[in-house]
């Protein structure tokens, strides 16, 4: 079974592809479509509350014909066109949920989690809140991490859990190029790293690190720094995480090359399910 996950940084920008960056994004989307994954999890769709417009719907149907779509968009009082997740699936789930995890502020309304239930596993698409400039959202982010850990721990008592997404944390120093200068940057604070350690200790596996214990590879490069991608000054903040009980079912993990396009690269997971 094949899974792909990607923070697309605006689904509309990819579909319209009117800029050079948009063209690169669309080409990556075409590459994913050609791979025909069983599941494609998208983060940061940035769609309005009422969802896809006609053109967006038509292009997605052309690229991913007959896939089912499961969507959580940002809704009031959260900001319009903010965050958002969408999961495309070849097969219908037993159930579909847009869970409220009692996160602080507007985080539950920002379009951050979609959960699909299948006979043998739960599949979650997750976009973890960023701690923000000046770490203004770090305390709330910590509460999110706790609530999300409790949520997936409850699910894992019933069956295998598989979740992916932009989790906005580089867990260890090996997971980013400049660890010393970024020690207190959003995504690499002691709090965020400790919360991620607690998540794994609750019974979950970082699939890529399991298969690549000492390999250096990144899934995100800053758009603000034009040389970040060229110099491979990146971070690994996108993950496929699975329950410990599914360890032997993991076949292959990796990143999908996006060429010169900065920001996030798609990640993939193959499992025997």
UniProtKB/TrEMBL annotation:
<dbReference type="InterPro" id="IPR020847">
    <property type="entry name" value="AP_endonuclease_F1_BS"/>
</dbReference>
<feature type="binding site">
    <location>
        <position position="264"/>
    </location>
    <ligand>
        <name>Mg(2+)</name>
    </ligand>
</feature>
<keyword id="KW-0378">Hydrolase</keyword>
<feature type="binding site">
    <location>
        <position position="168"/>
    </location>
    <ligand>
        <name>Mg(2+)</name>
    </ligand>
</feature>
<comment type="similarity">
    <text>Belongs to the DNA repair enzymes AP/ExoA family.</text>
</comment>
<keyword id="KW-0269">Exonuclease</keyword>
<feature type="site" description="Interaction with DNA substrate">
    <location>
        <position position="264"/>
    </location>
</feature>
<dbReference type="GO" id="GO:0008311">
    <property type="term" value="F:double-stranded DNA 3'-5' DNA exonuclease activity"/>
</dbReference>
<feature type="active site" description="Proton donor/acceptor">
    <location>
        <position position="166"/>
    </location>
</feature>
<dbReference type="Pfam" id="PF03372">
    <property type="entry name" value="Exo_endo_phos"/>
</dbReference>
<feature type="binding site">
    <location>
        <position position="263"/>
    </location>
    <ligand>
        <name>Mg(2+)</name>
    </ligand>
</feature>
<feature type="binding site">
    <location>
        <position position="44"/>
    </location>
    <ligand>
        <name>Mg(2+)</name>
    </ligand>
</feature>
<dbReference type="GO" id="GO:0046872">
    <property type="term" value="F:metal ion binding"/>
</dbReference>
<dbReference type="InterPro" id="IPR005135">
    <property type="entry name" value="Endo/exonuclease/phosphatase"/>
</dbReference>
<protein>
    <submittedName>
        <fullName>Exonuclease III</fullName>
    </submittedName>
</protein>
<feature type="binding site">
    <location>
        <position position="166"/>
    </location>
    <ligand>
        <name>Mg(2+)</name>
    </ligand>
</feature>
<keyword id="KW-0464">Manganese</keyword>
<feature type="site" description="Transition state stabilizer">
    <location>
        <position position="168"/>
    </location>
</feature>
<dbReference type="GO" id="GO:0003906">
    <property type="term" value="F:DNA-(apurinic or apyrimidinic site) endonuclease activity"/>
</dbReference>
<feature type="active site">
    <location>
        <position position="127"/>
    </location>
</feature>
<keyword id="KW-0479">Metal-binding</keyword>
<dbReference type="InterPro" id="IPR004808">
    <property type="entry name" value="AP_endonuc_1"/>
</dbReference>
<dbReference type="GO" id="GO:0003677">
    <property type="term" value="F:DNA binding"/>
</dbReference>
<dbReference type="InterPro" id="IPR036691">
    <property type="entry name" value="Endo/exonu/phosph_ase_sf"/>
</dbReference>
<dbReference type="GO" id="GO:0008081">
    <property type="term" value="F:phosphoric diester hydrolase activity"/>
</dbReference>
<feature type="active site" description="Proton acceptor">
    <location>
        <position position="264"/>
    </location>
</feature>
<keyword id="KW-0460">Magnesium</keyword>
<dbReference type="GO" id="GO:0006284">
    <property type="term" value="P:base-excision repair"/>
</dbReference>
<keyword id="KW-0540">Nuclease</keyword>
<feature type="site" description="Important for catalytic activity">
    <location>
        <position position="238"/>
    </location>
</feature>
<feature type="domain" description="Endonuclease/exonuclease/phosphatase">
    <location>
        <begin position="4"/>
        <end position="246"/>
    </location>
</feature>
<feature type="binding site">
    <location>
        <position position="7"/>
    </location>
    <ligand>
        <name>Mg(2+)</name>
    </ligand>
</feature>
């Amino acid at each position: 079974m094949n899974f792909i996950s990607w923070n697309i940084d605006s689904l509309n920008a990819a579909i319209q592809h009117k800029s050079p960056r948009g063209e690169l994004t669309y080409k990556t989307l075409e590459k994913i479509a050609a791979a025909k994954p069983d599941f494609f999890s998208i983060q940061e769709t940035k769609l309005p509350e009422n969802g896809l417009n006609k053109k967006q719907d038509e292009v997605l149907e052309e690229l991913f014909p007959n896939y089912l779509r499961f969507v959580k968009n940002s809704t009031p009082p959260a900001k319009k066109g903010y965050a958002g997740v969408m999961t495309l699936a070849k097969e219908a789930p037993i159930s579909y949920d847009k869970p409220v995890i009692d996160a602080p502020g507007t985080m539950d309304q920002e379009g951050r989690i979609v959960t699909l239930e299948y006979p043998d596993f739960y599949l979650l698409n997750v976009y973890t809140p960023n701690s923000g400039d000046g770490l203004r959202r770090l305390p709330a982010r910590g509460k999110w991490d706790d609530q999300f850990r409790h949520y997936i721990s409850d699910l894992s008592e019933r069956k295998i859990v598989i979740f992916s997404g932009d989790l906005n944390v580089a867990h260890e120093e090996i997971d980013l190029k400049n660890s010393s200068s970024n020690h207190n940057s959003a995504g690499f604070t002691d709090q965020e790293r400790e919360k991620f350690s607690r998540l794994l200790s609750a019974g979950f596996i970082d699939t890529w690190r399991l298969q690549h214990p000492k390999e250096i590879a990144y899934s995100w490069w800053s758009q603000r720094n034009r040389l970040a991608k060229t110099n491979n000054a990146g971070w690994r903040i996108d993950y496929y995480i699975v329950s410990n009980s599914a360890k032997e079912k993991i076949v292959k993990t990796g990143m999908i090359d996006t060429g010169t396009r900065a920001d996030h690269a798609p990640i993939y997971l193959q499992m025997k399910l």
